[in-house]
Amino acid sequence: MPLGECANHHKYNKDKYGDTCPICGLVTKKAKEDGKTPEEIEAMLKIPEGQYVCAWLVCIEGINKGRSYLIHPGKNFLGSGDDMDIQILGDDKVDRYRHAVLAYDEKSLRTVLLPGESKGLAYLEGAAVYAPKHLDAYMRIEVGNSKFLFLPFCGKEFDWNKGD
């Protein structure tokens, strides 16, 4: 997996995200130097509605301490593999494929933690997750050797579909 790095020093999978940093949206210097017009760069930077941020996971313990992960509408698959929506690198206890799932439901305006399809377990507030569990702000999630806080953005106070 070729790693890219933006001007803000975020590292990301270049195969998956190309020249645009998925964390801050900056286009790498190389993309700007390729002779792209401002309109082409704007088209590259435009985020499709289905990719708007709805919440974050923030790593508070483990190798990725201090790193945040975006949660988008629908199912967000968490694992260490390149094709995961939330890719946890460096924690060898996180399974490659669907260790856990975080799903934001645009109708109920809630985020749910679901068990994954791998052998590994996810924990919510210290208890193993065997069935869907609604998430509230600052709930603690454990996956592998990593611990995260859940921080919602969308909900009763804000909804992308209302155009607040």
What does this structure look like?
By secondary structure, the chain is mainly beta. It contains 3 helices and 13 strands. The strands form 3 sheets. The protein has a 6-stranded antiparallel β-sheet with strand order 4-3-13-12-9-10, with no helix packed on it. A 5-stranded mixed β-sheet has the order 6-5-7-8-11, with no helix packed on it. Strand 12 and strand 13 form a beta hairpin. The termini are far apart. The model has no long low-confidence stretch (mean pLDDT 88).
What characteristics describe this protein?
single chain, 164 residues, mainly beta, six-stranded antiparallel sheet, five-stranded mixed sheet, 34% strand, globular
Topology:
Elements: E1 3-5, E2 11-13, H1 14-17, H2 29-33, H3 38-45, E3 55-61, E4 68-71, E5 74-79, E6 86-87, E7 100-105, E8 110-115, E9 122-124, E10 127-128, E11 133-134, E12 140-143, E13 146-152
Parallel strand pairs: 5-6
Antiparallel strand pairs: 1-2, 3-4, 3-13, 5-7, 7-8, 8-11, 9-10, 9-12, 12-13
In short:
With 164 residues, the chain is mainly β. It is 10% helix and 34% strand. A hairpin with a 4-residue loop joins β7 (100-105) and β8.
Secondary structure class reads mainly beta
What about the largest sheet? 6 strands, antiparallel
Please provide the ordered H/E string of secondary-structure elements: EEHHHEEEEEEEEEEE
Discrete helix count: 3
